[in-house]
Amino acid sequence: MSPTEQEQLPDTWRDVSDLLVIHDEDVDRVAKIWFALDDPTDTSQHPQLYAALKPCEDRFKAFDDEQDTFRKRLNQFVRMYAFLSQVLSYTDTQMEKRYACARMLHHRLRDQAEGALDLGDDIVMVYLKIEAGDTTDATLQEGGGELTAFTRTD
Questions:
Q1: Is residue 137 one of the residues assigned to a domain?
Q2: In which domain, by residue range, is 21 found?
Q3: In this structure, is residue 97 part of a structural domain?
Q4: Environment class of residue 104 by beta-carbon count within 10 Å: exposed (0-12), middle (13-18) or buried (19+)?
C-alpha cells in the first residue's frame, strides 16, 4: 500500500467537514457516548446517540442542493476508513472518533433516504465455496476458421 493512500483519509475527512454538517463538538459528543458503552449491541443507549446526532441531521436537512454531495463524501470517508483500518494500525484517536460519528450518521441518513435500499453492513460473508462445474474442451483446431472479436449489440 502506498503512503499516498493512507494520507488520503485526512483529505477525505476534510471534504466531509468542509460542508459544515459535522462539527468537532458533534464528534466529541457522539464519541463520549459510543466509547463508554460496555456492549455495542446494547440498544438502550440509542436514544442518547440519536440525540447527539440530531444537530448533524438538522444541518444536513437544511442543505437542499448539497445533500447528495454530502452523502457521497460521507460514504467515501466511512468506506475508506473501514478498509484502511483493516490493513493499517491507526493511533489517531480523533480520526477514530470521527469515523464512529460519521458511520452512525451515515446509517441514520441512509435509513431516512426514500426509495434507497442499501444492505451495506447488513450482509456478512461467512464462507465462500468454490465447486468445479462442467468442463468443455475449447481447444482451437488448426485451420478451423475465422476468429471474430466480441462486439456490443446495443
A1: no
A2: 3-117
A3: yes
A4: buried
Report pLDDT for 119.
57
pLDDT at position 36: 87
Cβ atoms of 113 and 61 within 8 Å: the answer is: no
Q: How many residues does the chain have?
A: 154
Q: For position 44, what pLDDT does the model report?
A: 84
| pLDDT-based confidence at residue 3 (cuts at 50, 70, 90) | very low
Total tally of structural domains belonging to the chain: 1
Those residues with Cβ within 8 angstroms of residue 87's Cβ, 6 or more apart along the chain or in another chain:
1
Is the residue at 129 inside a domain?
no
The three cell numbers locating residue 9:
483519509
The answer as to whether 153 is a domain residue is no
Higher-confidence residue of 2 and 108: namely 108
Scanning the chain, the segments in alpha helix (DSSP H) are 3-17, 24-34, 46-62, 67-87, 93-112
Mean pLDDT for 100-128 is: 71
Residue whose C-alpha is closest to residue 16's, from 89, 121, 103: 103
